[in-house]
Amino acid sequence: MFKKVLKRLCAGLLAAGLASAAHAQPTGTVRYVVPAPPGGLIDNMARMVAQGIGDKLGRPIVIDNRPGGNTVIGADVVARSAPDGQTWLAVSIMLAANATLQPKMPFDIRKDLVPVARLAVTPMGVAVPANSPYHSLQELVNAAKGGKSLNYGSSGYGSPSHIGTALLEASAGFKANHIPYKGGMPALNDLMGGQLDFINVTISEAKPFIDSGKLRLLAVSSDKRLADYPNVPTTGEAGYQGAVMEGWTGVMVPGGTPAPVIRKIADAVLAAASKPEFVKRAESMGFVMAPQGPEAFNKQFYGEIDRLGHVIKTQNIKIE
């Protein structure tokens, strides 16, 4: 009797060990959920990662676009998935903002998703039309503080361009009229047409118009000047240290995913993103490579939730 019990116990432990090993070394197709339509910055980066990993991961990767809800719909798909390394989320700064903008999300952002790796940042900056009377950020701020009613556009309520301008307003001590659009391009078209006074633009999106002279870049909302625009000061250099705002993109997986699986995914993703051809292509699209592993990205992601949450609350930013 004792031998039978011992035999069953050993068999059970062996099965559990094999299951655990299989769990830590997932196989099969990876579903890479992009919470945005095809063709945007997040989607482009995800597709580059999927193409660039090659044999490093040893599994095919399929992009699954799930736009809507300010990226919440796609994030929810991943949050509800099994924590087996088979489902990834292409995450952006919008998810960190949504922690405050949408407090009733269908998942717990601090428990149901885990940061794996950050890939790159997307710098932003304050741009005006080519015929604008403002040739520096200080001139624009002085006009607003002097009583000039200024209109600024954004790609929607709670978008990085909206929050970035709110940071600038809080740092510089002025208020402007917010005109939300359904996307960045409609707002840029109205900026170039003179219907808006300025936008805190995503540089990669506005770059063709800045380079062609249709828009004038007054300042970049980064910690340091950009290589493509070395003569354009940062918002900090202009005196507004609290106005730093950069978009970013990375990878997350469902909460509960084992640490070895997270590390394997991070290593594969970061190895792909470090290849010279990957970096060159990303930079041509306006990205600045800024890789982070699980520990650093975890700290940055939750720090961003707190930082953005503060400005969203104090500036009364809401999704309407």
From TrEMBL:
Residues 1-24 form the signal peptide. InterPro entries: BUG, Bug_dom1. It holds the Pfam family TctC. Transmembrane segments: none annotated. CDD domains: PBP2_Bug_TTT. The keyword Signal applies. The keyword Glycosyltransferase does not apply. Keywords: Signal. Belongs to the UPF0065 (bug) family. PANTHER family: BLR1237 PROTEIN, TRICARBOXYLATE-BINDING PROTEIN. This is ABC transporter substrate-binding protein. It comes from Bordetella genomosp. 10.
